[in-house]
Inverse folding.
């Protein structure tokens, strides 16, 4: 019963993530951004993980993350700053909360990754650790061992077990133990 509840709970958790927090790479509207600079302090600190959600429109005063447009210096990099003017069609004027001047780039609505839905301060070291090859390999090995050992689970119930009679330990059907019963 507990195993079935755990399976249902896991399914609901994965389904909820798939609907609400699925990354744009998988067709969702969520982007995950690791912050490395101080240009948005004190609003967003270096080392934070920002979960971004796309919306239908963006306005002045809103914090957004955008990809630097192609053809501009540093194109392809992601920046998270505040809109201080402009429009989605002509290009937004952007500036970090801790910056003196506005950005060189004028991202359009198509360049916007989204607005912060969740900010997790200090998450970058944890994310980088979890993405390290040794952790990924260890997790893959652990799952493989769990799967393989799951094939050698406890013996299948015999007819006596199903009938509710107690079976002595010395009378376990060895054919059932090895999966041939």
């Amino acid at each position: 019963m507990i195993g079935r509840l755990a399976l249902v709970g896991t399914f609901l958790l994965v389904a909820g993530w798939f609907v609400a927090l699925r990354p744009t790479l998988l067709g969702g509207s969520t982007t995950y951004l690791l912050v490395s600079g101080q240009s948005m302090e004190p609003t967003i600190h270096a080392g934070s993980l920002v979960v971004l959600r796309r919306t239908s429109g963006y306005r002045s005063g809103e914090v957004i993350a955008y990809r630097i447009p192609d053809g501009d210096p540093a194109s392809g990099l992601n920046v998270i700053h505040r809109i201080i003017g402009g429009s989605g069609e002509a290009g937004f004027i952007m500036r970090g909360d801790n910056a003196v001047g506005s950005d060189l780039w004028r991202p359009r609505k198509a360049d916007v990754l989204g607005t912060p839905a969740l900010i997790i301060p200090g998450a970058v070291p944890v994310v980088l650790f979890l993405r390290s090859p040794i952790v990924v390999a260890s997790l893959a090995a652990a799952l493989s061992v769990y799967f393989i050992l799951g094939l050698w689970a406890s013996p299948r119930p015999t007819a006596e077990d199903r009938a509710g009679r107690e079976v002595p330990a010395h009378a376990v059907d060895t054919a059932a133990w090895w999966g041939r019963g």
